[in-house]
Amino acid sequence: xxxxxxxxxxxxxxxxxxxxxxxxxxxxxxxxxxxxxxxxxxxxxxxxxxxxxxxxxxxxxxxxxxxxxxxxxxxxxxxxxxxxxxxxxxxxxxxxxxxxxxxxxxxxxxxxxx
Amino acid sequence: xxxxxxxxxxxxxxxxxxxxxxxxxxxxxxxxxxxxxxxxxxxxxxxxxxxxxxxxxxxxxxxxxxxxxxxxxxxxxxxxxxxxxxxxxxxxxxxxxxxxxxxxxxxxxxxx
Lengths: 114, 112
Fold this sequence. Notes:
- The complex is a heterodimer.
- Chain A is mostly beta strands.
- Helix content of chain A is 0%, strand content 50%.
- Chain A has strands spanning 5-7, 10-13, 19-24, 31-37, 44-50, 53-57, 64-68, 74-78, 87-94, 104-105, 109-113.
- In chain A, the strands form two sheets. In chain A, strands 2, 4, 5, 6, 9, 10 and 11 form a seven-stranded mixed sheet that branches. Chain A has a four-stranded antiparallel sheet with strand order 1-3-8-7, with no helix packed on it.
- Chain B has strands spanning 9-13, 18-23, 31-38, 45-50, 55-56, 61-64, 70-75, 84-92, 106-111.
- Chain B starts with 8 loop residues before the first strand and ends with a strand.
- Classes of the chains: A mainly beta, B mainly beta.
- At the A-B interface, β5 and β10 of A face β3 and β4 of B.
């Protein structure tokens, strides 16, 4: 079975531009979460979506938004990119919100803002 | 969620047991202890979790002290592929937000 897939794997954008990152969860998983990981730090929670509704939001500005589609895939959108948005963006899926047996992470999208 | 404290780095010889400590002195009764690891350039990987009893799976063992204020992740026979950052996370099972709060973790280096 395919794991969590994210696209693209790498991306270079210019300050002020907009970016869309995509995530396909493991088949049957209904929850998708997004994390940002800057170099040298642990991942930081951005959003959780479950059954197509936002169920949790981290301390990120409104430039960050996301949605989940009927097939449970998800998009993360970031507007007005700043240099500080350069990071590895990780998607994690689980069967339900509680993820008692852990989340499965993708390999991430490496975003570089220049 | 309770805060965790881990040593920034540890070394282990290949084939020996790696014992990674975690302090979570403010943990509350309904909070689980989770361990994830992150191998360079990959996403985090779930290892194991526990509430109050010791747990074992094919990857590792988790020892939680009786007062639940600390725990130890044990990799019984470390290999070079176990070199990674290991994160100890406390998660509230009854909350409304199931986010994982990662610290800086412990960089485990397994040496040949």
